[in-house]
Specification:
alpha/beta; Aldehyde Dehydrogenase, Chain A, domain 1; Aldehyde Dehydrogenase, Chain A, domain 2; 7-stranded mixed sheet; about 40% helix
């Protein structure tokens, strides 16, 4: 039985309520283009209340023992697993991704909570040997303070859970500006923390016009740290605004990931893994492989194989269990993908398959393979964020490294080779925050996630993930 889609309120100081003004924004099902509900639109009065709540809660939460924080987080993780099927259905209804992907995201989110619960118990300081007798030198870790988090629609739960568990485990309070396109699954996530016993004000959830909320929260003196996941263009604006006020930042921004297939690669392995990750979430993934660079000796074989896989994708409503690729998240993505394809074709690229919107209802776009794509086309220079695979041949190691490193992005990169020597060389040569060789091994709870250059600053996940929510305080004292 299908769920009845819920409207979404704000969650401020432990209470669910509409915006003070009563204003709402429409939520649209991307598979049907129908308005399915409303989400409350926060404005300054709501944000003031959230700020006051976060500030008040921080004063007590930072004194809560790591063990007590751990217990609440572990309970939240267990509750999230219990509710995974229901939350996944809500997510698919509002965001579009296939139900299996939505449930996988939810269950992985529970693992993220578990990981950070443990990391909070291990936020160690250290003793530093002194140069004089009777002098003691040591460091301690302290929470940075109230946090403002801005999270996107492509992974509505995952991106919140890259931030919230780390902040809470560290002893911070946090205000999350969730995605207006997929608010209800975010609200269900917050209910998990509420039901796990998280004190009022430690976690607050707001929605609204993104620029209005960021312009108000980032400069506010209560906020001590800003964390954002989204596009490079917006991230640069928010980082600059935070810099004006000397706020700590973590910026997880866009990428344009090269996927290199060397002459000695296992072609079937490369095809299966790269295609699965290209069309996952309809290509709306910051670490999606986006520039396929294939050795000329394997080029035709790879293109033919990738084209066949693309043609076999079942594109449809994510609630249909036969669907392997759902719709794009909103109409703006359809327009963007169409413009990428038209630009590439105008510049000489060939469409092997796809290249068109699918159907006349819903934001569906065909899985698309492009060949003979010139380097001056937009898709070879701008993150496409959609189901398009431009495939280009290369002839030697130096040339492919030059192309892989040509852009200012440096989030993720992939390579396939059966040579240990080549694997070692390419891992070293790629300018990227993350490199995955012969498999897709990114974004695990226990591993650091983040880029360099225009792809952002700082790390989420792993032992590094909690560090950005902690200050290191040095204390030295002498005997008296």
């Amino acid at each position: 039985m299908a769920i009845e889609y819920p409207n979404t309120n704000l969650y401020i100081d432990g209470k669910w309520r509409p915006a003070v003004t009563g204003d709402t924004l429409d939520v649209i099902n991307p598979a049907t283009e129908e308005v399915i509900g409303q989400v409350a639109r926060a404005q300054h009065a709501d944000l003031d209340e959230a700020l006051e709540a976060a500030d008040k809660a921080f004063a007590s939460w930072k004194k809560t023992t790591p063990l007590d924080r751990y217990r609440i987080l572990r309970k939240a993780a267990d509750l999230l697993r219990e509710r995974a099927s229901m939350i996944a259905e809500v997510m698919t209804t509002e965001q579009g991704k296939p139900l299996a992907e939505a449930k996988g995201e939810t269950l992985m989110g529970a693992d993220r909570i578990d990981w950070m619960a443990e990391e909070g118990r291990r936020a160690y300081g250290r003793v530093i040997p002194a140069r004089s007798d009777g002098v003691y030198q040591f460091t301690v870790k302290e929470p940075v303070g109230p946090v403002a988090a801005f999270t996107p629609w492509n992974f509505p739960l995952n991106q919140i859970l890259q931030k919230v568990p780390a902040a809470i485990a560290a002893g911070c309070s946090i205000i999350v500006k969730g995605p207006e396109e997929a608010p209800a699954c975010c609200a269900e996530l917050v209910k998990v923390f509420e039901d796990a016993g998280l004190p009022a004000g430690v976690l607050n959830l707001v929605f609204g016009i993104p620029a209005e909320i960021s312009d108000y929260l980032i400069p506010h003196p209560i906020i001590k740290k800003v964390t954002f996941t989204g596009s490079t263009a917006v991230g640069k604006q928010l980082a600059a605004k935070a810099g004006e006020h000397m706020k700590l930042v973590t910026m997880e921004l866009g990428g344009h990931s090269p996927a290199i297939v060397f002459a000695d690669a296992d072609v079937d392995t490369a095809l299966n893994i790269l295609s699965a990750n290209k069309f996952r979430n309809a290509g709306q993934v910051c670490v999606s492989p986006t520039r396929f660079l294939v050795h000329e000796s394997l080029y035709n074989q790879f293109v033919d194989g990738f084209t066949k896989i693309s043609q076999n994708q079942v594109v449809g409503n994510g609630l249909d269990t036969s669907t392997t690729m759902g719709p794009l998240a909103h109409d703006r993505r359809v327009d963007a993908i169409e413009s990428f394809v038209l630009d590439a074709v105008d510049k000489g690229a060939k469409v092997k398959t796809g290249g068109q919107r699918k159907g006349n209802k819903g934001y569906f776009y065909e899985p698309t393979v492009l060949t003979d794509v010139p380097l001056n086309s937009r898709i070879m220079n701008e993150e496409p964020f959609g189901p398009i695979a431009p495939i280009t041949p290369f002839s030697n190691f130096d040339d492919v490294v030059q192309e892989a490193n040509r852009l200012p992005y440096g989030l993720a990169a992939y390579a396939y080779t059966t040579s240990a020597k080549t694997a070692g060389a390419i891992g070293s040569a790629l300018s990227s925050g993350m490199v995955s060789i012969n498999h897709h091994g990114l974004a695990m709870p226990e591993t650091p996630f983040g880029g360099i250059g225009d792809s952002g600053f700082g790390k989420e996940g792993g032992m590094e993930g909690i560090e950005s929510y902690l200050h290191t305080k040095f204390i030295t004292q002498a005997d008296v």
